[in-house]
Amino acid sequence: MPEPTSPPSSRAGVLELLRLFRDDVAAADQYGAICLDKARAVEPTLKAFEVLPIEVARKPGPLSGIPVAIKDIIATADMPTTNGSAIYKNHVPAADAWVVERLRNLGATIFGKTVSTEFAWRQPGPTVNPWNVAHTPGGSSSGSAAAVAAGIVPLALGSQTLGSVIRPAAFNGIVGLKPSFGAIPRTGVHPLSPSLDHVGLFARRVDDVALALSLLAGSSDSDRHGEPLPCFHVDIDHGVVPLQRPRLGVVRFEKWSQAEPEQRATFDASIQRLRDAGAVIEQTELSEFDRANWNAVNTILLSEAAVIYSDLVARYPDRTSDHLKRLVATGNALSAGDYLRAKALQERWREQLFAELPYDALVTLPAFGEAPRGLQSTGDAEYCAPWTFIGAPALTLPIAFGRNGLPLGLQIVAPYRNDHRLLCTAKWIETILAFDSGSPKIGAESHFRSD
């Protein structure tokens, strides 16, 4: 048996853990069990998991010893995949999703299934925000974001069709990455809207999501939307190389005035710090894109989701939510012309938006402010959806706390398929802002705060 060792900090990131494990085999062997003990201790209150793992033994590979939580719309052949729905309560898929199989081959520990809203749409699950249990963790990747924020796992998979990675990452004070559309194959991921669905990542540092994407990006013949990214390497000792003096376009959008005052103030203060540190920063309006994207992205989502879920709603009216029923009814009321016009706009903006902008990245809000109070809504996706619409890579960083002591974020967006540039820019911004949200006090139920 390995000698006992001091457990890693609950804030340790993937690269930090891999460096530790390289020199401390005992720590590597014990870490999965430590994470499982913590999950069991806080799960009665956090409610981030549908299923916790039984086996956490370390396996060989580049991600050996790293527990990865899996959103429960992503298929796992050795544990149930419920899709957040009573219909699939006991469903165990015949095969792993492409991305789960890749993680296993990389030596990662598949650390259970995290709570998703119903079919990654709007019916919330029971997960609470680890900073304050009276507030939503966001959605639809609710459990994945909360599990990383709570220090249970250093890495988790989510998905985004409108704002389901970026928004919960911001609400939970962690890093969320939505790669370019098609960067990670979605084979085995339950669809909501195939023209918009992305597999995404949650972690604690930019370097951590960068390493994960460098290892998980790929293509699959069974995902016709796949578009392999240019390869890049992340050094475990140094992470990605920051892009010095980036050229940044600041996007506020028309609804800027509706953001919480603290969110606007911290955003503006962060922009000034980046300018003072040498970034070249300009305001850009994108007014035509701002006016067009929300209606178009919802037209695509509703139309495609109606095709996928109409039969399910008809067959299981007692086991599908009003949210899903409205989704189907609204989508069925749209015409083929509505859908085709929205798809044409999607292609136009994907090709043209960044071609006309002289920036390494855009910076904007990830949400309108702190996580809303209550668990009935997972928040507003309007600041996330434009980038999902065109498939551009987007990342959010924590930058401050709001008036209720909940995290606030900054969203960074780069041109389609320029994920490495996004990560290098985000690493520079992370270094300059140097904000550490710390950890929610979740060691026991009595440590959770509720206002």
Write the layout of secondary structure elements.
Layout: H1 14-23, H2 25-46, E1 49-51, E2 67-71, H3 98-105, E3 109-114, H4 142-149, E4 155-160, H5 166-172, E5 175-178, E6 198-203, H6 206-216, E7 247-250, H7 261-276, E8 280-283, H8 287-315, H9 322-332, H10 336-352, E9 361-364, H11 385-390, E10 394-401, E11 407-413, H12 419-433
Parallel strand pairs: 2-3, 2-4, 7-8, 7-9
Antiparallel strand pairs: 1-3, 4-6, 5-6, 5-10, 9-11, 10-11
Quickly list its features:
globular, 451 residues, eleven-stranded mixed β-sheet, Amidase signature (AS) enzymes, alpha/beta, 11 strands, 12 helices, 2 domains
Overview of the structural elements:
α8 (287-315) crosses α9 (322-332). This protein has an eleven-stranded mixed beta sheet with strand order 1-3-2-4-6-5-10-11-9-7-8, with helices on both faces. The radius of gyration is 20 Å and the shape is globular. The relative contact order is 0.15. The protein has two domains: 14-286 and 352-440, Alpha-Beta Complex (Amidase signature (AS) enzymes), CATH 3.90.1300.10; 287-342, no CATH class. Helix content is 35%, strand content 13%. β2 (67-71), α3 (98-105) and β3 (109-114) form a beta-alpha-beta unit. It is an alpha/beta fold. The longest helix is centred in the last third of the chain and has 29 residues, at 287-315. The chain is built from twelve helices and eleven strands. The termini are far apart. The protein has helices at residues 14-23, 25-46, 98-105, 142-149, 166-172, 206-216, 261-276, 287-315, 322-332, 336-352, 385-390, 419-433, and strands at residues 49-51, 67-71, 109-114, 155-160, 175-178, 198-203, 247-250, 280-283, 361-364, 394-401, 407-413.
